[in-house]
Amino acid sequence: MRSLNDTLSRLSVLRAAQTGMTGSLGEDRLSDLSGFGSNPGALRGRFYVPDALARSAALVVVLHGCTQDAAGYDRGSGWSHLADDQGFAVLFPEQQRANNANRCFNWFSAQDTQRDAGEALSIRQMVAAMVVEYALDPARVYVTGLSAGGAMASVMLATYPEVFAGGAIIAGLPYGTAHSVPEAFDRMRAHGGPRAAALGGLVSAASAHDGPWPTVSIWHGDDDATVSVANADLVVAQWRGLHGVSAKPSAIETVDGHPRCVWRNAEGREVIEEYRIAGLGHGTPLSTSGDDACGVAGSFMLEAGISSTRHIARFWGLLDAREAEATERAASASPSRDASPPEAAPRIPVEAHDTRRRGGPSVSEGVGRVIEDALRAAGLMR
After folding, report:
1. CATH class of the 4-377 domain in this structure
2. Active-site residue among 147, 217, 228, 287?
3. What are the domain boundaries of the chain?
4. Whole-prediction pTM value?
């Protein structure tokens, strides 16, 4: 177990990093969703439905990061504007300060990360209400999120895999590896936790579902000082076994100057993709100029010359033919190849990390109280 000083210093670093994350600055395009169920996680529901909603449209669930709110994340990522262009609906569950002072989704809390309980159930109830109210296609529901929202997207994919056709995890973590705030800090740095080979079993055990499984898109900056880029490898490892694909990617290509690794199943379908963004810190990758412009750069909404929003939508099949062709042309500028990833953005092998669960004596009651008080002050514990 890490020392008290180490835990408190990590709290200080996280709080300093989070001070730059902003809520909604500018236009709020979202409406409130009410009466969607028992809402055991006490979340706020917000949504956007374009005027030209397609018949049997898809639904994209978007989960913001710590200290952000739904409107601010929508403005930065551009999801509602893309929904206008493509005719799908967007749902934005929003964390409340009463649940977490820093508005982080509680991805490490057992009461919020199990099927039919807490925040996970609240989000599931919102999805059900949106599908019924707007006659959306229940077979085309997707979920994405940043940081704590990315970790919560992992929670939703694991606990309700039959609900989601696909997910996208941006600077997030795999499901089920942390059950307390100190463990969450360790996992953010890829310290401790189950072995990589056991990660898929955590998803299998989260529900009675036995396939087919959601497709997964993973995005991470290789200069992320908040959530280690090694977590991208762990997310890939969590889903590889479920999809029955090998450790080696089926192909590697360059898209908008960044490496994209893709894993295809036995039928040749792309089931996992991973973008490793060179030089990017902790945040959502954006392209805010040119033909693919989408979103607004700001704190933790980072200009990277590549629109994660558009490429995630492409992976899910949500772009119309014209948009998809333009995106494919950009991707085909550099041919795919079967090889190890480029040296400019090396993958970090899962085996290189200590993924064993760490043991050790428990802290005394007095020290534990000090830690808990600090965690509550940081907004990471109720």
Report:
1. alpha beta
2. 147
3. 4-377
4. 0.82
